[in-house]
Design brief:
The protein is mostly helical. The protein has one domain. 55% of the residues lie in helices and 0% in strands. The chain is built from two helices and no strands. The chain has helices at 6-28, 50-70. The chain is elongated, with a radius of gyration of 17 Å.
Length: 80
């Protein structure tokens, strides 16, 4: 199934990049420095959320791959 919608490609790309940036935030900032609206925020904790970062990175990469495949050339339908 091909969505072939330019807005879908743009949204997937923006979300993919945002999630990759978020992965680095999870790896660099301790839990106490994360914004309170992010999962993993813990007041006074020096723990780094490595697993949250890995998950964010993988989902971000998956969204970029999705956008890449959606932006490719259309394939001709085989004649039956």
């Amino acid at each position: 199934m091909r969505l072939n919608s330019r807005p879908v490609i743009i949204v997937a790309t923006i979300l993919g990049i945002a999630l990759i940036v978020l992965a680095f935030v999870y790896w660099i900032e301790p839990a106490k420095s994360l914004p309170s609206w992010l999962p993993g925020h813990e007041s006074g904790s020096g723990h780094h959320h490595v697993k949250h970062g890995i998950a964010s990175l993988l989902v971000g990469l998956a969204l970029l791959v999705f956008a890449w495949f959606q932006s490719g050339p259309k394939r001709a339908q085989p004649a039956d």
